[in-house]
Amino acid sequence: MKFRIVKDKIAGSTMLVLTILSVLLAVLVGWGLYYKSLPLLEKNTLWDLLSSSAWKPSKGQFGFFAFIMGTLWVTAIAVLLALPLCLLSSIFISEYAHPRLRKIIVPVVDLLSGIPPVVFGVWGVLMVVPFIENYVAPHFVAYPMGYSVLAGGIVLGVMIFPLIIALFLEVFSAVPREMRDASLSVGATKWQTVKFVLLKKSLPGLVASVVLAVSRAFGETIAVLMVCGSVAIVPQSVFDSGYPLPALIANNYGEMLSAPEYESALLFAAFLLFAIIFLFNAVSRIVLGRIKKRIE
Amino acid sequence: MTIATPHISVQNLNLYYGDHHTLKNINIDIPDKKVTSFIGPSGCGKTTLLKTFNRLHDSSLEVRVEGKVLLDGENIYDKNAEVTSIRKKMGLLSQRPFPLPMSIYDNIAYGPRIHGEKDRHKLDEIVERYLKDVALWPEVKDRLKSPASRLSIGQQQRLCLARGLAVEPEIILGDEPTSALDPKSTQKIEELFLELKEKYTIVLVTHILRQARRVSDYVAFVYNGEIVEFGPTEELLLHPKEKLTQDYVKGFFS
Amino acid sequence: MKWKKIEEQFFKALMILSTVVIVASFFLIVGTIVSKGLPSLSWEMLSEIPTGDFYMGGEGGILNSIVGSLYIAAGSSLLALLISLPIVIYINVYLKKSSWMGNLTRLGYDVLFGMPSIVYGAFGFTLMIYLGMKASLLGGIIAVTLLIIPIMVRTMDEVVRSVPKELFEASYSLGATRYETAFVLLKQVAPGIFTAILLAFGRGIGDVASVMFTAGFSNDLPQSLQDPASTLPLAVFNQLSSPVEEVQARAYGAALILTIVVLLISISARMMSKRLSKNKI
User: Fold this and answer.
1) Are C111 and A278 in contact (CB under 8 A)?
2) Do residues C20 and C123 both lie within one domain?
3) Do residues C92 and C33 share a domain?
4) Could you tell me how many CB contacts below 8 A there are between chain A and chain C?
5) Model confidence pLDDT, tens digit, residues A186-232
6) Among partner residues C15, C177, C212, which is closest to A88 by beta-carbon distance?
7) CB B114 to CB A1 under 8 A?
8) How much is the ipTM here?
9) Which domain holds residue C71?
10) CB spacing of B82 vs A5 below 8 angstroms
11) Does residue C35 sit in the same domain as residue C129?
């Protein structure tokens, strides 16, 4: 009889320990990466690391500016592409589409989210890169090249479609039906209702969703790496190659064990990613969580 | 009103839900082997009061309970009280039936099993006996292995009653147990209560005054977190002393 | 008055167009992979390990990657399940509703869920060096486990949270302990747990960045946990840019198989969760 109670308590404490340890993992990852990047941080100031674009590992020069700009270009293009499309599309799905149509669209978007990054990369190499090289870039630049931040941005944009749509749909569903009805019943059109009620009401949620999507885009590695050219320069136009931070890690980490400083630099890049994404994620999740709670 | 040998005795019970003072200084003695009903408008706190009896508020963070609930003279809110053995003494019937996700047989056998009964034959006997007690046996005896969720709602509620009885409780707590049922199933449950009060103390929450009158020996009128009036059924429903009670029952029995 | 209508029509057309673009992108991607991968798919591709190398090329298929992927995805799913399940039970059964610790854990997992796999890969590899491990099947399993624990915890937590509290009360009122009640709960949400496993498996089998340092790469079948292993995504990534056609073909073949596997997993996960909502009480 008492044995049951003891079992309950033991199981409880075991699970508690496991839960605490697992959450500490987040701290451990951050601390581990920071610890490993300390050698680099001791030699250089943070500002130098972030603002210099001199990247010569053999000479001990580690300037991340080009990589940071590469990341920003690719992310910006991806978000500029995905945001309007996803916003319009999720308004359509949530407000206009017939339920039967919705039942077809939503699963397809879901399936898109399951496709592995490397497959997106293959698609980028086979379709997006040649398309830019042959049809787009020649109109703008003298030496057209497909492997560019534009290609990276497009592939990345498609990759974050499902995430943005899922988040937007959730935010829209938090707006009560009655609020829409109230607007419609005073004679507003559906679009006016969307514009003045739905979008206004869900603005904080939409912003938080975009922040979350940006942080996802920041960290995406393989697909972008495969199409953006990996040249360590600061891109001047969308047709230039770029070299985002995650790609830098993926391309070089594992082969630099003989050079501790180089390793430190790459793990500093990983730490940068970790820190930025941690911050963005935490803030947007807290905002989204508040919104979700409101409906419950 | 005083009860000679109360089965449950609530003393100076206060319950706070966050900042909201939900139950205010409740004092009531629940008589042994009788049916006692809590009536009152929805949101008055009658279900909350019922759930304090087997400490189901334990898992809510916002709820704070002060005061005593004595079960056979022992305070169930005592620090050393063992909550599982308290709950074992009380069967609960909720508003909608919630069969456990297993077969009809296992639903009944679940309680006895966790309390240590392993003998297959004994379990068979227990299942048959309590299914008979709730008059479900003839309907399900050939499909004991099928999932309980396939039963009708009325059958499910009787199954839940049998499941509660199988751990041999002393008390049955019913939280508007017929509110999701059709009239025929409701009648069956009510008839069961009248039979079961020979052996069990029954506490019911109901908003149907006619039901309170049909099945209960005592009625307490709960309003705004307080017990306004408590007394024998006929007396309270037909000749209430308090103005609030009069207003509430007026119209139902005139 | 008329302007209102034009505006409505205009935006509606834009919305439909956007939706078409988004839906089409899915079919475009799958179509590209199928049209490139199908010609290179053969029995040989599925049943043989590759010979030769990146520049020289050679015969053979991608059996090493198929086997490696299955080992890594299955191993890490199992490991992640063993870790995630107690956590989900703890925050839902043992902790009170909306306790600060539960909320903090959930937030922590939200954040971990958003971490890119390259971070797990880099961290995992650093950890392996620290522990003196070499790139191996085991290393890959550990890195992928780290990656998919948040997926499992979040998916299962969502399912468990949708269980009505009355089911808990039904079990408690029979005198069951929290530990015993947890098993009732698991029975109730079994399809949801299966969905979570499928989703995690799908994510695990498709990821490159977490395994590219930790699993190593090998043309041979791994014989033990210490052997380096290839995975399907690694086969795609490492062989796509080869100048040799046969090697490239292996990349396309691997991409197609990976896509098929992942789509099958996504679809069955969807069907599973549909079944779950039907069983809801």
Assistant:
1) yes
2) no
3) no
4) 256
5) 878 888 899 889 998 899 999 999 999 999 898 888 899 999 888 88
6) C15
7) no
8) 0.90
9) 46-277
10) yes
11) no
